[in-house]
Amino acid sequence: MKNFFLNRQIRRIEKEANNDFLQILSFGARCYPTKELHQLLHDLDQEAQRHAYFRRILFMVGGTTTLWIALCFLFQSLNFGVGIYLTLGMIPASILAFSVGSIYVNQKFRSIREAGRIEKIIVEELERRKKDASIF
Fold first, then answer.
1. Going by C-beta distance under 8 Å and a sequence separation of 6 or more, which residues neighbour residue 48?
2. Is pLDDT of 134 > 80?
3. What is the mean pLDDT of residues 22-45?
């Protein structure tokens, strides 16, 4: 059992060490080559777009709760028992899907929440390198 927890910690540390965005937040962008910094800016933009896409989907899933409530009222007025129970079951399911999805997306895109700061660090480093290159 000790090895399980040790291996889990090692995998978590390796995962965080392989995340370039968290590395830039922790140590800065000086150790990255210029070409890789440009690629990281592009990757950061794509990750931010993916994060926004998943968030939009999650808000649509959470927004279906109002649809299920409206359908429940409709089925109650029509005395359609199966529809009533189906929609009453879907209300907590959509709320649960929204909550679990939000937690998952926030864990998966943890460094993207700091995208503005990461972008600023990379751009400042690229500007510094551009100034240093113009001196020679």
1. 112, 115
2. no
3. 90
